[in-house]
Amino acid sequence: ERFSCPIRLAHDTVCGLLAEKQFGSIRDIDRCAYLTVSTGTGAAFQLRKGANALTVSIEIGHQLLDGNLRECLCGQVGCLETYTGGRQLELRYGRPMAEIADETLWQQFCQKLALGLVNLAMLTRVEAVAVGGAIALHSPTLLNAVQGEINARIRGATLSLYRAVLDENAPLVGAALLPGVPEETIIH
């Protein structure tokens, strides 16, 4: 009312997906997703094409990994995000992610993120993921390492990772697109 215009809210991954689908690396792919790897690990995926495409926001970082006994900030034990969430890793190591040079950490990070993405591909049949977020975008080798882990694991499907063309602006661009997207086509 104060601004005399409609206001819509959506998860940052939904907005990132909308932007990358319209302007970015996944614009020509029907079954696709957007993944943010930053403070946390989140995703959204799209299953149909055209004006009535269904966009679904998921908490990919809170899928449980067998044998993971780490407590997540969400209160669950065993979340993927205990390996891939920037905030959780900073708390565990006592310093910002950019300062963590532990090779074992990064190897586990890539292995666990790949496992989560293979699960996503097998459950939804997405074929491509635009990857954004500060951790992913500021690491020149991360996407290639995760793609290698995916390729070693996945059977009966394919999944390709792409750097978000719109970088960290993808969610902002998507937020600007949000008013033109039918509300019933977004599931949170």
Proportion of residues in helical segments: 25-40%
Mean pLDDT: 93
Q: How many β-strand runs?
A: 6
Strand order of the largest sheet: 5-4-1-2-3-6
| Topology order in helix (H) and strand (E) letters | HEEEHHHEHHEHE
Distance between the termini: 24 Å
Shape: globular
- Portion of residues in beta strands equals 5-15%
Provide a count of the helices. 7
Largest sheet: 6 strands, mixed
The poorly predicted ranges are: none
**Rg estimate, integer Å:** 16 Å
Helix-and-strand structural type: alpha/beta
Keywords for this structure?
188 residues; alpha/beta; 7 helices; globular
Detailed description of the structure:
The structure is a single chain. A hairpin with a 3-residue loop joins strand 1 (32-37) and strand 2. The chain has a six-stranded mixed β-sheet, sandwiched between helices. Helix 1 (12-23) crosses helix 7. The radius of gyration is 16 Å and the shape is globular. The two termini are 24 Å apart. The protein is an alpha/beta fold and 188 residues long. It has helices spanning 12-23, 81-84, 86-93, 103-124, 134-137, 142-153, 170-177, and strands at 32-37, 41-46, 55-58, 128-132, 160-163, 186-187. The model has no long low-confidence stretch (mean pLDDT 93). Helix content is 37%, strand content 14%.
